Amino acid sequence: MATSDMGAPYHVGIIMDGNGRWAKRRLLPRLAGHRAGMKRMLSLIEHAFDTGIKELTLFALSTENLSRPKEELDGLFDLFRLYFTQHITPLCEKGIRLRVIGDRTLIPADIARLIAEAEEKTKGGERALLTFAIGYGGQQDIVAACNKAVSEGKPQTLESFAEKLSTGGMSAMDLLIRTGGEMRLSNFLLFEAAYAELWFSEKMFPAFSDEDFDEAIRDYRTRDRRFGKLRK
Ligand code: FPP
Fold first, then answer.
1. What is the pLDDT of residue 232?
2. Quick one: average pLDDT of 172-178?
3. Among 30, 80, 87, 152, which has the minimal tally of Cβ within 10 Å of its Cβ?
């Protein structure tokens, strides 16, 4: 699992939290918050790759989110359908490969199919990697990797274990941003974010601007990443 030793973060993750509260404050239904979140996400993806980020991993739906009311989930699933049908061509044009991590048996089969098609369509993208975590739980992913290791029946190294996670082949996370004011990881990339720098924003995700993203990157550049070692 390689980690950036340059000043710029190579792999950025975002926990896109606060859509519901953004909507509530405007007396709108929660789904309006998710729609606004999707609109913001589309621009932010473009912006992040334009600034040179190589890997962007976005937490779209956790395993635990799947127990939300049916109406909210159906609305989110419609947004996923929209995304995976209408927003894939621009990724191909920009050389961005798409990957989705999470348990696809937990989401509607038609969305799992659209995801597989989108991954296939973008698989040649070499400029950057965009990953969505959907139906994803970091603890569940670690348990699944342990089960693979058990069936292999031999001791694991950090590297061989990391390859068994659904993020196998991706870089370790350099910078993890969470919007929405909460300061927790909520079961996102627990193994992969071991040495990630953390940035928490009070802004709800639909209000998290490109400039806010740039501020997080600027702050990241000032961090002294020692990975547990002494300063050089
Ligand atoms: C968390 O906010 C956000 C989600 C559970 C959904 C995130 C989805 C998007 C940004 C839209 C589209 C995504 C894709 C991949 C097409 P919350 O509802 O928990 O907010 P709250 O904490 O204010 O209630």
1. 65
2. 96
3. 152
Domains of the chain: 11-221 (3.40.1180.10)
Q: Which of 14, 17, 86, 91 to mutate to test the pocket of ligand 1 (most atoms within 8 A of CB)?
A: 17
pTM: 0.94
- Mean pLDDT across the stretch 25-44? 98
Active site residues: 17, 65
Which mutation among 24, 25, 34, 186 tests ligand 1's pocket best, with the greatest number of atoms within 8 A of CB?
Answer: 34
Token couple for 69 = 């009311």
149 forms bridges with which residues in the sheet? none
pLDDT value at position 226?
A: 79
pLDDT at 5 (0 to 100): 47
The token duo for 128 is 């950057």
Going from the Cα of 30 to the center of ligand 1, the distance in angstroms, rounded, reads: 9
Tokens of 98: 């798409």
User: Roughly what angle, to the nearest 10 degrees, separates helices 70-86 and 30-50?
Assistant: 30
Q: What is the pLDDT of residue 132?
A: 98
From CA 118, how far away is CA 141, in angstroms rounded?
22
Atom of ligand 1 nearest to the CA of 87: 16
